[in-house]
Amino acid sequence: MRVGILGLGEAGALYATGFAEHGWSVAGYDPGDVPTPPGVLRAGGVAEAVAGADLVLGLTGAVAAAAVAAEAAPHLRAGAVFADMNAGAPDLKRTIDGVVAEGGRAVFADVSVIGSVPTYRHRTALVASGRGASTVAEHFGALGATVEDLGAEPGAASARKLLRSLFMKGLGAVIAQTVEAGRAAGDEEWVRRQITQELTDGEATLERLYAGTFKHGRRRAVEVAAAADLMVDLGLDAALAQAISGLHARAARPDGLRAAPLVTQELLTAYEGLPTANIGDARDRLGLLDSGIRPLWSGARAVGRALTVLTRAGDNRAIHEALRIAAPGDLLVVNGEGDTSRALIGELIAERAQARGVVGMVLDGAARDVEVLEEIGFPVWARAVTPAGPYKDGPGRVNVAVAVGGVVCGPGDLVVADGDGVAVLPAEEAESALVAARAVEADEARRRAGIRAAARAADAPAKGARAADASPAAATSPKGTPPADTSPSDTSPADAPAGEAA
């Protein structure tokens, strides 16, 4: 039996070793610089890893799961089972099922890990659903794992996993926050003893949950955000799950749980190049400014952390105050009350902003000096352009929640702007929204490739027919009279128009 493993991180390496120990031929692929487990053939790519495999395990993380499945699907052999073992939302599992089923050869299994893989290795309990669930139960059962086959559609196992995640990841988040608070208060040892007394396995469990929250914070934030969505679907309040997701996202930052912006430079970089249209689709078309606020020059694009300004119509005193505290990566978001009679900013303010590292401005108001803004490459989105200058009297406010283009933007929120317009994402949702937006982007790319391939296939016979109509025999034969005979030596398969059968 042969198994292909996509992702050789901690869990992937342990499963690869377990299958190898039980006599399976194991091929694994991981683009990262991670070690290859003993007895495992390191494949050079996804196609090589899955070629000829009876079972393929997807262990890449939810962010890349759909894209990796799409890359693997054309190379799966007939009858193979593609088991996605990433902790993702039920909708993601159903999407991957569609990708795998598209080829009509392999079957999909939604597999969720219920337990600690570092502790139980390949014998960790599993829950499975989908058409390939029974095969997964058979193979992992032979390795000593307990597998519950739900006999349901893809997404059922994932939902079961997320219900458990509410407790496990929530407990880890509570422990992390409590230990951090105890450390800050000088009572860490006392706090640890209090928690230890409440946990059956004592200090070992406490340390595993505490350290794991920081080590795996980003992945767990996505997982618990999906659990929060499930809570909403169940008609329950999701505030706790959303807070747990946010705490895990913060724990993954270099600053950990210390006070620091939720929207990090790493997150800003991750959003670069991601279209606002994809972001809007991923967030149910919410958080998009109205179309009256437009880029002032073609090609303008910016991704930044919101530095918010509330000002009186036609007055820019508060903008000057904001620039005094602006930091690299900030993007000014200004509520100018929608007034278009006077420009709130021009070339001089733009030059000052660039010198402070400000990446752009979004104005619910007007601007001027458009040609210079384009020349210096400073992106601005505004409701209008006017040569009339602003007042400088105030009043105004900086770093308060503002309403711009029909959307509320808070200090520190993520702002993405391009030729289509502007998207605002609450800081606490930016991490999870990135996963959803990337999935939309990958799905559109796959569908676009399919449309183009179908168009090329449809166009080929038409080109062949036009070539045949233009042949000398067709052009000179009278209507209703067959063209002159052509001997086989006159036309060979190699000379047939592209797309025609030889």
Molecular structure report:
By secondary structure, the chain is an alpha/beta fold. It has 18 helices and 21 strands. The chain has an eight-stranded mixed β-sheet, sandwiched between helices. Strands 9, 10, 11, 13, 15, 17, 20 and 21 form an eight-stranded mixed β-sheet that branches. Helix 3 (62-72) packs parallel to helix 4 (90-101) and helix 13 packs across helix 17. The protein is globular, with a radius of gyration of 29 Å. The two termini are 41 Å apart. Residues 473-502 have low confidence and may be disordered.
Task: Break the fold down into its secondary structure elements and pairings.
Layout: E1 2-6, H1 10-21, E2 25-29, E3 40-42, H2 46-50, E4 55-58, H3 62-72, E5 81-84, H4 90-101, E6 107-113, H5 117-120, E7 126-129, H6 133-142, E8 147-149, H7 156-185, H8 188-198, H9 203-215, H10 217-233, H11 239-251, H12 265-271, H13 276-282, E9 294-295, E10 302-311, H14 317-325, E11 330-335, E12 343-345, H15 347-355, E13 360-364, E14 366-367, H16 370-376, E15 380-382, E16 384-385, E17 396-398, E18 402-404, E19 407-409, E20 414-418, E21 421-425, H17 430-469, H18 472-476
Parallel strand pairs: 1-2, 1-4, 2-3, 4-5, 5-6, 7-8, 10-11, 11-13, 12-14, 13-15, 14-16
Antiparallel strand pairs: 6-7, 9-15, 10-17, 10-20, 18-19, 20-21
Helix pairs in contact: 3-4, 3-17, 7-8, 7-9, 7-10, 7-11, 10-11, 13-17
